[in-house]
Amino acid sequence: MVVGDFTQNVQTVVIGAGPGGYVAAIRAAQTGQEVVLIEKSNIGGVCLNWGCIPSKAMIEVSGLKYELKHAADMGLLIGDVELDMKKLHHWKDGIVTRLRNGIGTLLEKNEIERIEGTAKIADDKTIMVSSKSGLQRFAFENLILATGSRPRELSGIPFDDERIIDSSGALELEKVPERLLVVGAGSVGLEMALIYSKLGSVVTIIEAEDALLPNYEPELIRVLKKSLKVHNIKLMLGAQIESVKDGQVVIQHNGTEPLDADKVLVSIGRKPNSNDLGLEHLQIDLDEQGFVQVNSKMQTSNENVYAIGDLVRGPMLAHRASHMGKVAAEVISGKKSAFDNLAIPGVIFTDPEIATVGMTEAQAKEQGLDVKTGVFPFKALGRAMTMGNTEGLTKIVSDAETGTVLGVHIIGPHASDLIAEGALAVESALHVEDLSLTIHAHPTLPEGLGEAAEDIDRKAIHIFSPGK
Question: Is 462 a residue of the active site?
């Protein structure tokens, strides 16, 4: 039945309350729109509930455990550090709950009607929502699709939530697996591998590509590979899984013997949640992989229907989705807004952290640009030494003719925080001197950005660069 057997007219309907959808709903409400936000699960989406936030909580715990284990180098004599997984999950889940409740409060204060249920598009102007109380019908003037994505499965080896798990399952394990096999050496696979290695697992990563993170600067990858060895993580490139049976994993990789694994974490990417929505009623364009095609205003081929976040081809990043959500809401309100950003920073919370923005040296050269680069190592930073964490470097790629900052690439402690300055430089098309002439406080990690900028002209003070 339909609740109340009537259709509710709404100016803007948002389907999906992840980092794209709830941000879009709030910005739409801020511009005076009447908004209905529909979510079938927890608000905050995968990022808050089963991804970004819980994984970073576990990264913090595993990193602290590792640091305490090696604290004797700094004069701290600490006994055995024991892990209580139940308490860890209680603490982690508490963070998620507080953030989720905070978003709920914001939605209420912005007078956004929140519907918990599954949305289905009935026609080009109507949505049906199935909830515990029955069916509700909404007629919309504008629709923002923010339904996110889901993990890809290995062909012929589906998730069973027991031995074959995805990243969400990996964040809920009741005990640390003795042997963990990670399939896929992208950001999620690398982060999970380091978490469980530090917690005590014997970890192997297999990656189908012949190179690790092939689109990243090679200087960063050399540091990362060294770190994986330090943490006793075995990396197998150019390898694929053939089968998994009774805890044995058969791999295509130079005659490798079957591996024993208590858990197999599959992290080979994600696919858009564009099916089972009824998108055919909207007559919007999708590509061959199910991504919704949009213009810079986030409009689909139906100008009253918008798509954001993981539904749109490109890097699947929460901050990208949030920015897209703001653009869509502002366009609906009549503002001249567009998603035309030059700089979308990407972060991998490995050890050390990796953060990049803009073009790599190779990408700039492929575009026919003459480039100059500057590199500065963390081992030359006093602050990094006092932290006992000196692995890594900062690399800046610039246009040799104009001096414009084209890309900033960092691997090292707190790279995820340091990249903000680099993103501002790339987005604003700053000159390298804007970085080198900025006075960075001492002793701090951001000094490395200023010195890397100076190294472009071989004028860095705290390293010797030949060719002055």
Answer: no
